[in-house]
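step=encode ok
step=design start
structure_in=
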């Protein structure tokens, strides 16, 4: 896309950030769009990357690269506005924050540009709220049995440890009480009756396999992988950062494997297993998969569905935006075996809170 197209995309992402309580990023992106049009340091930094296929990706990669410098202590003048490093931001400081942001790009563009090649992998832990609800629903429908967790677009595999998270809502809690990952306020008006019943029947889950795929997986135990995950959490979302910190701690204790592979090729090697519920899930990754790759992925999911039996059930769970009357609400949908896809819940993009539609 042209620089003008990139500037327009930044303005669009700024509006999305404002709607998701990220005022700092919203204000920075509005000014970054102006700087791109004026040929300033933002334009110089993104030049050559204007043709990224998803219009939001460029903005998020740029912001992530800058945030990484803030997190590593290499941008002290900007860090004072970033809550993720103990700073604070109010909209009256928008121009001062922008001045520091622009100056950093002018000085450190070569450090930020490599991030424009990195996928914005937040591996958002809050989305496990929906995935776990779908898993409990599947167990209630198919019977108590061990579970294989298989995730598409797993990033660092943090949500492959979701059964070790603690989900909490008014009058409802599920998961280990001492978990380092807590998901409070999980449901807007309390957990739905079907989830309460499923959780009561299955107070714990036995997971026999935690396996995922990603074209560019991150190692949550490595410094680079952990920094990438932290950098892509928006700096004002301190609760998300705390969940991520807990998930990184948990990942060090609970093994999971993420293969370097696309979803279709990965699924070609998966088959149902007798005596086990095979769960294939993904969350907010569909938009990053090319159309031809997703067509092949869908064919593999259909193959798995046809192979499911009463003794070797398969559940497909997805938390993705779904077009409805011109809107794209984020919905949890479930398909058991070769049955129809069912809408179970909706939620904010980061998974908290959820509600029944």
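sequence_out=
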């Amino acid at each position: 896309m042209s620089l003008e197209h990139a500037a327009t995309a930044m303005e669009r992402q700024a509006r999305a950030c404002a709607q998701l309580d990220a005022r700092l990023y919203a204000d920075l992106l509005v000014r970054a769009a102006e700087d791109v049009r004026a040929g300033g340091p933002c334009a110089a930094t993104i030049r050559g990357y204007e043709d990224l296929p998803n219009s939001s990706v460029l903005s998020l990669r740029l912001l992530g690269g800058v945030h990484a410098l803030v997190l590593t202590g290499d941008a002290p003048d900007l860090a004072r506005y970033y809550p993720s490093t103990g700073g604070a931001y109010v909209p009256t400081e928008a121009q001062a924050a922008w001045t520091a942001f622009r100056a950093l790009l002018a000085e450190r563009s070569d450090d930020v540009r490599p991030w424009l090649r990195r996928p914005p992998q937040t591996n958002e832990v809050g989305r496990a709220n929906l995935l776990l609800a779908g898993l409990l629903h599947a167990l209630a429908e198919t019977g108590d049995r061990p579970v294989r967790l298989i995730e598409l677009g797993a990033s660092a595999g943090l949500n492959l440890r979701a059964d070790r998270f603690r989900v909490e809502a008014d009058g409802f809690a599920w998961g280990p009480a001492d978990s380092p990952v807590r998901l409070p306020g999980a449901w807007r008006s309390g957990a739905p009756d079907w989830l309460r019943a499923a959780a009561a029947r299955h107070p714990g889950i036995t997971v026999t396999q935690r396996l995922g795929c990603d074209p560019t997986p991150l190692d949550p135990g490595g410094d680079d992988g952990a920094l990438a995950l932290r950098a892509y959490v928006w700096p004002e979302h301190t609760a998300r950062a705390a969940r991520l910190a807990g998930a990184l701690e948990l990942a060090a204790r609970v093994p999971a494997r993420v293969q370097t592979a696309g979803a279709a090729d990965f699924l070609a090697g998966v088959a149902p297993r007798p005596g086990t519920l095979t769960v294939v899930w993904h969350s907010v990754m569909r938009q990053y998969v090319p159309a031809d790759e997703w067509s092949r992925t869908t064919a593999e999911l259909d193959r798995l569905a046809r192979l499911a039996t009463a003794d070797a059930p398969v559940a497909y769970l997805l938390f993705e935006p779904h077009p409805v009357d011109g809107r794209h609400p984020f919905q949890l949908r479930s398909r058991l075996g070769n049955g129809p896809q069912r809408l179970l819940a909706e939620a904010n993009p980061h998974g908290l809170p959820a509600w029944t539609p």
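step=design ok
step=annotate ok -> Residues 14 and 282 are 26 Å apart (CA to CA).
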